[in-house]
Structures are given as structure tokens and as C-alpha cells.
Amino acid sequence: MPATAMVPVAQIFRRDVPGPWWPADIDLLQILWCPNEHWDPPAQQADTSPVVELRWRRAGDVTGPLTTPPAPSRYDEDGYLPRACAFTAEPVTDFPFREELPAELQPRLEELVHATGDGGDAITRLAGWKLGGWPTWHLTYPTAFTCDDCGTAMTLLFTVASDAETRVIVGRYGDLRIFTCPADHRHGFQVDLH
Question: Tens digits of per-residue pLDDT, 178-189?
């Protein structure tokens, strides 16, 4: 496959979305990906998905956009080219998967599942893209991701949920999730397609 330019997926400023995922001296996160589906990606990336790059930066070091950015090339019609749009930061509370939920909250979860008919993952399957929070496990049981560099349990950094608004569909209308090491943002990350 020929080399192609990465495309921007999200640019997030600390001032808009504060949280525990920010390294001490960083205030800008840029998420990019190759616009093509990869069947044999690098080890930490998900199969049959775009290859992701994370760029942790200081906003003051970014002087402006490229005046003529290179155009990405796509080798098939199923490329991943998000439509340019602005995110509206909205704080939400989500919870861990039902088996990880504290015992005192289990009865309330059962009431919610019964009322919504949404199955056991009613509390983590939030619509839209999100920074942080808990991963959904509506297709499989929870899986632990550990950092290859230090062995620390990784946490969910970002979810790209399939939706018609951005024209991004991942997997079978699923979620592309990026997990990072909470001990050091420079350690390798993991990409999961769910």
C-alpha cells in the first residue's frame, strides 16, 4: 500500500475538556489516522481499522495550520475521512460494565435495564465520541489492556463511535477505542475495535 497523509480525527484542548488523562505539561491532544482500512496493522492497532496516531503537544508550540496540507489518498471506497465539524464538550457520567459496578448500584442497574430494554450495557453505551470514561463491552466480556512498557492497567482515552453525523463508520457500526497508560503518556497505546 502506498504511503498516504494522515487525516485529523480530533483536536482537543485541556481548557475545554479537563480531566485526569492530561500529562502535566501538555494542553493539546491531536488524534490522527490513516484514511484506509488496514488488515495487517502494527501490533497495538486494531485489525480492519484505520491506523491511529496520538500527538500530545503544547498549544503554544502550534503556530497555525499547514497552508497546503497534503491530500490523503484512499485505495478503496471505505476510507475513513471524517467530515470537518466542531465538538461541543458536554460532561457526562458513565459507569463501568455491570460486573465491575459496585454491589450497592446493581439493583438500580437492573431497574434501568428493565425500563430501557437496553441489555446489560445500558450504562456504558453512550452515543457519540468521548474522551475518557469507561469502555462499552456490549459485544464481549471486559478485557484488560496492560501497558507493554510498564505493565500498568491501561485506561480508556478516546472513543470514536460510528455515526452518520461525522460520516465515520468503524467496524460493523461499532466503536474504535484508544487505551493509554495512565503512568506515562509516552508509553505505547492500544487501539481496540468493538
Answer: 999 999 999 999
